Amino acid sequence: MMRIFVEDDVLRGRAERTRADRPARHDGVWAAQRSLIKACYIRIAAETAGHLVGGADHIDLELDRARRALDVAHPAQQLVEPLERLGELVGEAFQLRDDLLGTFGDPAITGKPIDSDIREGKKNVLYAKTLAALADDDLGVFETRWGGGDSLSDDECVRLRSLVESSGAKAETEALLARLTEEAVAVLAGLPVTDEVRAGLHSLVEAATSRQS
Predict the structure, then answer these.
(1) What integer pLDDT is reported at residue 25 of this predicted model?
(2) What's residue 91's pLDDT?
C-alpha cells in the first residue's frame, strides 16, 4: 500500500526561510494558505489511498476552518476553489483507475483476482458504458451474467470482460481518465503555491491516476 506523508516542510515551503523578511501583516494570509493547503493535501492523499470516507468529517472540518480564516485573508481566497476542484478530479480519476484495474489489471501486481469485480457485479463506469453500448444477444448475456458470482465459469468471465472491451467501454473510460488527469494537472499548474507544495501535490495526482495496484 502506498504510504502518504504530509511533511510540515513541504507545506511550509519557503515560509520559515523568509520569515525574517516577511512583513508581520502577511502572517495571517500565510497561516490561512497553509491551513487550506494542508487540508486539501490530506483530502487528496485520502482519496488516493481510498480512505476518504472514514476521515471525511475531520477533513471537512479543517477545510471549514481554513475557509473562515480566508474570509479575513482575502488574497488566499483564490486557493479555495482550485484546490477543491483538484481533490474532486483526483478522487474521480482514482476511482476510474480502480475500475480498470479491477477488470483488466494484472493480478500479480494488484493482488486481486481479475474476475472479482465481474463476479461481484460492480455497477461502475465500465459497467454503465458497456450496458449502454451493447444490443441483442450480447446485451442479454451481459445483463443476466454480470454479477453471477461463483456460478460464472472462467469462460463466461472471459466473455464478459471481452464485451466490456469490444463495446468501447474500456477505451472510453481510459479516455475519461486521461481528460480528468489533464484537467488536474492544469489546475495544479495554476495554483499560486510554492514549488515544494506543487511537487507534493503532483506526486499524489500521478500516484492516483497511473497506479498499477
Answers:
(1) 45
(2) 83
Q: Which residues of the chain have pLDDT under 70?
A: 1-77
Q: What is the pTM of this model?
A: 0.69
pLDDT of residue 190: 87
CB 167 within 8 A of CB 134: yes
Q: Which of 77, 88, 152 is nearest to 114 (CA)?
A: 152
